## 1
Amino acid sequence: MATTAVSRIRRQQLDFGDALLHVLSNEYDEVLLEFAVEDVPAVAMGALALPVAAGKGLWDAAKHVFDVGISQATFDAYEGAKAFAGTATEVPGRAMQAASYFYDEFVFHLEKRQDTSDKALFVGRLSTYLGTFAASAVVGADTPDKDITVLGIGSHRNFFFHSAAIALGVKLICRLMLRVASRAEKLVKKGSDDHEALVFIATNLKAVSFGYAVGTATHLVKDATFDGSKAVTGPLGGTLIDGTIVDDDAWLLLNGFVAIMAGEEPKKRRKRKVRKTASKKKATKRGS
């Protein structure tokens, strides 16, 4: 009975509000299960990937020093730094190419729309998306310094506020909300205004996740480089390691890069394609 009722509801043309309510009241347990089994482990593994890679890099560097000697290892590190600097000089040119590509794409999609109202709607949606990204980036950049408001000036640069933890939490919330919106899309007529509204919501959820992560990462990397003379306060109020700020800058840089990784857009769940085995193919051919 329940399956029949759900299938009957799916055939109806619901507006996006009714569709969201239906998912929240009838399918939310299944959404939460998928979220817990798929999204949470994926985000956790993504957050651990960079520290593991950093540890492996340090181990490989130490092994290289042991194998070839400190003189050769120093020379190799210098050559590697030169190669990295050469790549860094290409960043402005690549940024200009990306901006030119974005402008060409914008003009192309704008010219595809003949009706003035469609053009205005396209520009409005794009502006909203960019505005959502910018606002989220500003909030993400401002959040680490909220430790002053919450904990007081004595706990400035608190290890939790100046980490990627909040950015990862925002990403998880966006992924959960995106799952709900994606389920609701199936309950409305494709191509309708209600379907477009749900797509618009999903697109802006991605902008929130990405913008917040970029803002947080920018703040942490700036603190580690331009303001690198200040210590990160630990859970008990003191610095992480007394007598040095190398550990503090490493903490900020590492969490800045983890926050950037958290900026990956939350994706819809892909349907797995079931491949036919050789025996099934043969049985199909015999039946035909």
## 2
Amino acid sequence: MSRVESLSTRLLRPWRGVHACVMLSAAASVAGGCNEMVESMRERLGQPSDGVGAAAAGEAEVTRLAFDLVPGVSVQVDDGEVGAPPTEATEIVAGEHMITARHRCGRESTITVVVGEGDTKTLGHGDFPGMATATLRLQISALHGQPLAPTLRTGLADDGAAVADIEHPIGEGGEVTLLACRQRVVVGSGHPDVGGYREDLDVDAGAVIERTLVLAPDAVSAK
């Protein structure tokens, strides 16, 4: 056995695989073999690979802000534009921020929040003083039994020309969450031959308002 072969055999003993790989790679020019052995040894020792370590070191923690507010409430973050809150959490710089929530019925509330590095903070009505909600509970049917697909929209109250253009989802049991303020409620039947319902409501914080509606072709009965 030559001296080189004897040296190679000794270096390939257990737990000396890394050193053996380096020397044999230089002698035999075996591409890729060294990297595979180094990664294998790191796995045995519970150490991260070079790729994982580099990615983890270069990745900054993402900080996000989310909103859980009823339709019709707009928000402004710091000096940004006023608009409808995003439907999903969005990235934001970690630290202190001034958030304003507004509704066209006249409600407005401004708070200061601190979002930690890597955190996702969700702001709801409970975080904004003066922006409480109430529940409208509807039971809707058609006078002649037609199948309905009800919709509910809100707008400004006490204005004959006002358009109710803010659509609200009708949940299980006919429940709709509204901002606690005076506003117009318009219920649509979703059927071409059945009429709807309109009412200007004074909505108090925490209230549960119940309406039983029997929708007819031209008129509506409310109980």
